[in-house]
Amino acid sequence: MAQWKPYFLKMWFTCGVLFGLVAMLLSMFLLTLLVVNTVRRQPVEQQVLTPVMPGVNLPASQVSYYLLTLLVCGIIHEMGHAIAAIREQVRVNGFGLFLLILYPGAYVDLSTEHLQVVSPLRQLRIYCAGVWHNFIIVIVAWAVLLGLPLMLLPFYSAGSGVAITEVSQNSAVSGPRGLSIGEPITSISGCRVTSIADWNACIMASMKEESMGHCLAVDKVKELDTSPKNLSEAKKMIDCCNSTSSTHLCFKYHIKTSPSNKYACLPARMTTDRPMCRYQSDCYIPKLDMVCVYPALDNETKLLQVFHGRKPPLLFLGHPLDLHYSVILSNYVPKSSIIPLNLPYVVETFSKYLISLSGALVILNVVPCYALDGQWICHGFIELSLRTVIPDKDIRGLIYSVIILYGTGLLMINVILAMWMLFS
């Protein structure tokens, strides 16, 4: 690989040198700004460094993505060093993988003797290759994330509903009559669902608004009403069905001749199949005495119709958040049953992890800190830029030591602050 298109690889790793300089300055600025803002007690909207702790801020279901991302980023990072080293005639003694407690990583062992005799610019091509490749990972993952809807278009439909990828066991919507994995959800009680964002918005709207009503003729209400005849009006207000039926629900309505609410125990399925209404005027039909019947529920409980697939809508009775947390959804609905349901989620999640963790590795590795790439990158930049200006090697070494001490202290302070922010 190091012998493939030598001129292109030379320009490729030279671009990595330019990126390494810019990234080092930007990383030092960001980490310094974070410390200054913390000391001045100014709010920091987003932490630059956040420790990833399984079981603390990393769900158990995401651990596999996290470890795989670390492994991929580590291998490509070290491959950059190795390819650049061979291209610059620096011997690679070996390379491999390691496991630090639970965190996988990769390493490459370069010949120190060969490194010391090549020019600072050639050293920088080797030192900056790792973070340069991490940055390329971020760009590629970001492009995949943006182009995902177009790439999945032949196999998935988007914008017409959301697909159910998981249903919580023993939840209100599980079971043979509940929601099934793979079904598309298109609407919640008249609120159109075309994406997960719509789903969240519909759930929030249902919490703030009253449950939708349904249009029924007054004669039909009286015909279907099964409330016990001996119930007083006061008891009807509490539960006109007297908690005796699992298929019926108490509805309230009012008629023109009486300003007070009337109550009727009606079959829930048959009633909710009628046209929806929010106001009495929505049910107006000439020469028919129509009313809008509303579920008689407390402020927290809602009756929601979840339209899913070709089945009759699911009637959900409870708090809307219980419905929200009972399912996991995807914006992509498979066009065929043989197409993997979770593939878009896997690609999207893996891409986000690549962007986040590979970007974090760039910020960390370019800091001029002991035992990181930034230590050698800083030394290479000093030798390249100051060797002719400051011929005295000891003075250049002093400048290098000061920068390394500052970078090491800066990174340690940021790690301590990040841990404190996580656990406080």
From TrEMBL:
Keyword Transmembrane helix applies: yes
GO biological process, one term: membrane protein intracellular domain proteolysis
Domain of life from the UniProt record: Eukaryota
CDD domains: cpPDZ_MBTPS2-like
Keyword field: Membrane, Transmembrane, Transmembrane helix
Catalytic activity: Cleaves several transcription factors that are type-2 transmembrane proteins within membrane-spanning domains. Known substrates include sterol regulatory element-binding protein (SREBP) -1, SREBP-2 and forms of the transcriptional activator ATF6. SREBP-2 is cleaved at the site 477-DRSRILL-|-CVLTFLCLSFNPLTSLLQWGGA-505. The residues Asn-Pro, 11 residues distal to the site of cleavage in the membrane-spanning domain, are important for cleavage by S2P endopeptidase. Replacement of either of these residues does not prevent cleavage, but there is no cleavage if both of these residues are replaced
GO cellular component: cytoplasm; endomembrane system; membrane
Keyword Transmembrane helix carried by entry: yes
Pfam families linked to this entry: Peptidase_M50
Topological relation to the membrane, as annotated: Multi-pass membrane protein
Peptidase M50 domain residues: 65-393
Enzyme Commission number, as recorded: 3.4.24.85
Enzyme class: hydrolase
GO molecular function ontology, one term from the record: metalloendopeptidase activity
Localization per record: Endomembrane system
TM segment ranges: 12-36, 63-80, 92-110, 130-153, 398-423
PANTHER family: MEMBRANE-BOUND TRANSCRIPTION FACTOR SITE-2 PROTEASE, PROTEASE M50 MEMBRANE-BOUND TRANSCRIPTION FACTOR SITE 2 PROTEASE
UniProt function note: Zinc metalloprotease that mediates intramembrane proteolysis of proteins such as ATF6, ATF6B, SREBF1/SREBP1 and SREBF2/SREBP2. Catalyzes the second step in the proteolytic activation of the sterol regulatory element-binding proteins (SREBPs) SREBF1/SREBP1 and SREBF2/SREBP2: cleaves SREBPs within the first transmembrane segment, thereby releasing the N-terminal segment with a portion of the transmembrane segment attached. Mature N-terminal SREBP fragments shuttle to the nucleus and activate gene transcription.
Designated name of the protein: Membrane-bound transcription factor site-2 protease
Species this protein is from: Pinctada imbricata (Atlantic pearl-oyster)
